Amino acid sequence: MEIISFLIDFILHVDKHLQEFVIAYGPWVYALLFVIVFVETGVVVMPFLPGDSLLFIVGALCGMGLMSFPIACAVLIAAAILGDQCNFSIGRYLGPKVFQWEDSRFFNKKAFNQAHAFYERYGGVTVILARFMPFIRTFAPFVAGVADMNRGRFTLFNVVGALIWVLGIATAGYFFGNLPFVRQHLDKIIWGLILVPGLIAIFGAWRAGRAEKAAAPQT
């Protein structure tokens, strides 16, 4: 319970914890950032670690002069790319083992073929957009691997998505993270970065489900 409480407190007050770590351990903060982002994107069972809020706070700390913006971005981009590649590889390894059970209740060849077709057609956009959605960014590369998406194509969009995600949010934190209004309402901004993308993803999935049902032939 203590670990869970600490993780929740770290996620909701990542600005304070990260600043304290920088002051106490200096350059070791870059190793910490690499581990957090790599684990969040590379280990499918750890989707709750901070992502967007972490990038924003890192940018803000760089704007304060506590960290190097180029080094921080380079570390975060490397962690994001390698994390997704790891997650993709895990999914690619497990996929054939799972979907070979033709008569399984939960997994079947038809589902595999549908997932494969989806990721071959929309996988690039999915990989990029998933970067900005908590939880989904952890599962999207894994599912892409399970669906046997072309590795070269996945890698291309993985790199593009990581660059847009890290540079976009960290830059926003660098220029706006230390404004008085932002500092005053930082807790609300962190909640927004956690909840809003997730709600958008849920709404999109709901609409997609309704559209699929509407398009299905009536019996």
From TrEMBL:
Compartments where found: Cell membrane
UniProt keyword list: Cell membrane, Membrane, Transmembrane, Transmembrane helix
Domain of life: Bacteria
One of the Pfam families matching this protein, by short name: VTT_dom
Membrane topology designation: Multi-pass membrane protein
Transmembrane portions of the chain: 21-49, 55-82, 156-177, 189-206
Keyword Membrane listed: yes
Coiled coil: none
Domain VTT: 49-174
Family in the record: Belongs to the DedA family.
Protein name: Membrane-associated protein
Organism: Variovorax ginsengisoli
